[in-house]
Model the fold of this input.
Amino acid sequence: MKPESSSESVEMYLKSISELAEDEVLVPISALAERMGVSTVSATEMVHRLREQGLVEHTPYRGVALTAQGIRRACRIIRRHRLWERFLADCLALPWQQVHDYACQLEHATADEVTEALAAFLGHPQTCPHGNPIPSADWEMPPLEDAPLSECSPGDRGIISRIHPESILLLDYLAGRNIQPGQPVVFSEIAPFHGPLMVEIGGHMHALGREIAAHIFVRRTDE
Done:
């Protein structure tokens, strides 16, 4: 992933920080660099530029977090991205696992007026095809009430709510196993010696590594 312009680069970094941040935990620059596909030095230089613009706060040796202004900028680009994903999947019938990549290309060339026209055309959807919430027109993110499958325990039941953060490799893997939002989940067991999680999804048993399970979010149910 290589930024093509200064504006696109800023948007991509802000979106990546937002996607990597969970529960207000600082995002390590090394994780940000890996997500962006650049060196740690390049990521550090961009973080310093974003801090000068008032978009991030950087705690040396710990990580980076978005400021209030940075959060709004990130939500703005995420709104565009997820609306395009919805359009590509619902209106053009493109495969669920492919729309993320196409939306990444469209999000930087979409004016706010086009974004809102797109939202109206789609009927103001609440989530993208991968289950992630679409920020409001005021660029605010709705609250989340789910947890990664990796934090569940044997015996837990639920419904897959979303896949997060998204990546082409991850979505291809899940699509090949028909694992997507809306499917029922039953956590069976954890294999011995730190082995995979044995999970029944949509009536089929899957052995999932912890890294994969950390990207599958579940809304727990009693039954």
Observations:
- Helices lie at 6-20, 29-36, 40-52, 68-90, 99-106, 112-122, 168-176, 210-213.
- The two ends are 42 Å apart (CA to CA).
- Residues 6-66 form a domain with the Arc Repressor Mutant, subunit A fold (CATH 1.10.10.10).
- The chain has three domains: 6-66, 78-143, 147-221.
